[in-house]
Amino acid sequence: MRKFILAFLTLILIALLGATYVLKQFEQTANLSYNQLQAVQSTVIYDKNDRPVDELYRTLPRQNVSIDEVPDHVKMAFVATEDRRFYNHFGIDLQGIARAAFTNIITMSKAEGASTITQQLARNLYLSNDKTIKRKVDEMFLSLGLEQQFSKDQILELYMNQIYFGSGVYGISAASHLYFNKDVSDLTIGEAALLAGLPKAPSKYSPGSSTEEATKRRNVVLKLMADQNVIDQRAYEQALTEQVRKPDVPVKRKSENQAFVDYVIREAANEYGVTSDDLYEGGYAIYTDFDPLLQESINRSVKNHVFADDELSKRVEIGIAAVNPKNGAVAALYGGRNYETNGLNRATTGYQPGSAIKPLAVYGPALETGDYDPTSRLNDKQTDFNGYKPKNANNQYRGEVSMREAVTRSLNVPAVSLLNEIGFNEAADFLEKAGLPLNDADKEDRALTLALGGTNTTFSPLQLAQGYTTFANDGVMNKPHAIRKLQLRGGEEKEPEIESEEVMSPEHADTMTSMLEDVIEKSYGTGAKARSTKDAAGKTGTTQKNRDAWFVGYTDDVVISIHTGFDYDGNGKTKYLSSGGGEDPAELFGSIMDNW
């Protein structure tokens, strides 16, 4: 009678929630075939040729195992622990729900959850872990759909290949190899019990955390197995004697592309709501426009470059970002010579831009006014601009120079003088359209130091690369993005909406490129050391006392932004370079282009 009443109440609940809602949940499970779910492995990041860049896992990669390879005592260890009526219910254990409700009422707690293996699988595949009534209802209906779609053994197989076993491993195969260094087919009864006990609290019961807690939990599972006649008394007593050892948990080796990988993971969370934990749980495919040959050229060029300012105790650090100007796709990132996983990514860290900002803050806006061109004559004599007296780097002044020569030689006085003529607002508006907005302090100061990159606002190599896509892409800035396509579990695909801004006319962008080509090609250009076998344009940048050195260069196919300098120490202080952007950064650009 009690079973009948519970079944009747369940039917009423379904009717109240509505047939449409139920069908929607069933539809969600039907959209995924068994082969699709079975194929869930570690998340893989792919390059522009759809070749793997990296596989995301923390200790060991996921490897699915067929239910046919799983011994009966292993299967039943999970059934006895997680869902003793697994082979008898239809996805929802009505008796279990009644028992849990009774226990919770008596104890005035939520000690009993009554989730079946099917419900846990539904939650892992489709839902979050939020403890809400809606999630629980969704979980129940999805479980009904799974039971309609798959056999009991298929559900159990998917469950064992999905769940987290602690110490950074997902799936029973990886767990078996981590904790016991053996295949699932070779697990003993005691080992099976230990693994079956982990899903309840993986961090607490993992032998990697505590062999004592792992042993206690294993013994609880063994008792459940014995009480349910899964094993006999002799097997039970024998399994109790098995010693639990602390595993040697491996740490995944850092990738040579780690800065890019970390950036992709952050973008997946920020733009698509797919967290790092989601990705490491597995089942996703991330497609990018990563260029492995370009990244290899960057890595090799930095490794082979001799930095005169290196010291044994402290080395010059590098941040490099490469972007495809046509679509904003991030092609490569270099986070630093000492870059560690999830560490300080110098490709995305902000620094004062120095003269690398001049094309964006002065010359680009001036061209757009229509009142200036490369032949325009600019003031190049020492001038007092309301108390501000800029100096040229070499302390030489020509009285008057063309805009082209001012750009090529990176002269400071002409840049400040021109900014003074066109007005601060023109510069700020151009920068904002190029994706480099000034902060409130700079907007309030309206200081002419902006012309030389003397700003409160800092910009990262990736941001400057973004700004320079304006010149490389006929006046249209494309905002950088790393992910070309994100494939979710089950095959649904998401693609970015490319954010573009028409910053300047194609004609003026070509004019700017022509002047920036001279920076490299002319013998007196500040970027002469960036010359390579490829035709390119670019601009050097150096801040006061050579704290920061820059080179941002580009072709039709790529913008490469390079920053060099010493990291701040613990007191916020830094060492200074002995040279500026025309040395190490420019040389690195030339080397990268030659080797790409």
Describe this structure in words.
With 596 residues, the chain is of the alpha+beta class. The chain has a domain at 2-31 and 67-240: Penicillin binding protein transpeptidase fold. The protein is built from 24 helices and 14 strands. The strands form 4 sheets. It has a 5-stranded mixed sheet. It has a 5-stranded antiparallel sheet with strand order 5-4-14-13-12, sandwiched between helices. Helix 4 runs parallel beside helix 10 (189-196) and helix 10 (189-196) crosses helix 12 (211-227). It is elongated and about 100 Å long. Residues 18-23, 101-105 and 107-112 have low confidence and may be disordered.
Most strands sheet: 5 strands, mixed
CATH topology of the domain at 2-31 and 67-240: Penicillin binding protein transpeptidase fold
Sheet with the most strands: spatial strand order: 2-1-3-9-10
Mean pLDDT over all positions: 89
Gross geometry: elongated
Q: In percent, how much strand structure appears in the residues?
A: 5-15%
Q: Tell me the quaternary state.
A: single chain
Structural class of the helices, strands and pairings? alpha+beta
**Rg, nearest Å:** 31 Å
Terminal CA distance: 77 Å
Query: What is the fourth-level CATH superfamily of the domain at 2-31 and 67-240?
Result: Biosynthetic peptidoglycan transglycosylase-like
